[in-house]
Amino acid sequence: xxxxxxxxxxxxxxxxxxxxxxxxxxxxxxxxxxxxxxxxxxxxxxxxxxxxxxxxxxxxxxxxxxxxxxxxxxxxxxxxxxxxxxxxxxxxxxxxxxxxxxxxxxxxxxxxxxxxxxxxxxxxxxxxxxxxxxxxxxxxxxxxxxxxxxxxxxxxxxxxxxxxxxxxxxxxxxxxxxxxxxxxxxxxxxxxxxxxxxxxxxxxxxxxxxxxxxxxxxxxxxxxxxxxxxxxxxxxxxxxxxxxxxxxxxxxxxxxxxxxxx
Length: 262
Prior knowledge:
Elements: H1 5-21, E1 31-35, E2 38-41, H2 42-58, E3 63-66, E4 70-72, E5 77-85, H3 87-91, E6 98-105, E7 108-116, E8 121-126, E9 131-133, E10 136-137, E11 150-153, H4 163-174, E12 179-181, H5 186-194, E13 200-203, H6 208-220, E14 224-226, H7 234-237, E15 240-243, H8 248-260
Parallel strand pairs: 3-5, 11-12, 11-13
Antiparallel strand pairs: 1-2, 3-4, 5-6, 6-7, 7-8, 8-9, 9-10, 13-15, 14-15
C-alpha cells in the first residue's frame, strides 16, 4: 500500500463522522449560498477542517486544494479535498453523498478515496495497485454495448455549463441506453463506474475536487477517463467522460455528435 493511503482513509472516516453526527440537526444547520443553486453548510467546513488537520499532521509540507478553504501552497504533493460531495442531497435528507480525497504528485494522481459514510462504503485506489471497495478488488463493468448500459450523469445548474449542449447529449443517450441516472454526487458516481455499478458517466463543468479521486479509481479499476473530445483536460475543464473499455468509444462518439448538432 502506498504511503498516504491510510492517512486519506483516516481523514475520510473522520469527515464521515462529522457528517453523520450532524444529520439529526439538519433543519438547524447554517447554510450559505456560493452561487446559483450552489450551497455550503457549516458541516462542509467542519468536515473539511477535520480532513486537513489529519493530513497536515502527517504531511505538514504538502500542498492542499480544498473546496471550501481553497489552495494552500506546499511541495510537489497536493491533496485535493471535497469534504461533502452532494451537499444539496445531504441538506434535504437524501441519503446519497460522499467524502472525496485524492493526492497528486507533480500533477499525477497517486491516491484516491471516496467514502459513503451512510452505507459505510470505502472506495480506495493507489496508482499501480488497483482499486478496492471495503478492501475487496473492484473492476469496471463488462457491458459491451451502449444498448443495455446504465450511465450516470449530473445536470447543469450554472450559467457556464452549456445547458442546450448538455440536453442534446442527454437526448441522444436516452435513446441508446437502458437508463440515465442523476444521483447528485459526482464523486460517488465515478466510484460506481469503478465498481461496475454504472457502465459510464459524463458531465460538464465539474471541479477538480469533484472528480480527482474518482478518476484514479476508474483508471485503477480498468476503465477509461477523458474530456469530451478524448483528450486529457478533464481535470482542468471538469468536462468528463468515463466508461469501461467496451463502451467508451461509442459513448464519446454519441456525446460528440450530439454536441456538434447544437
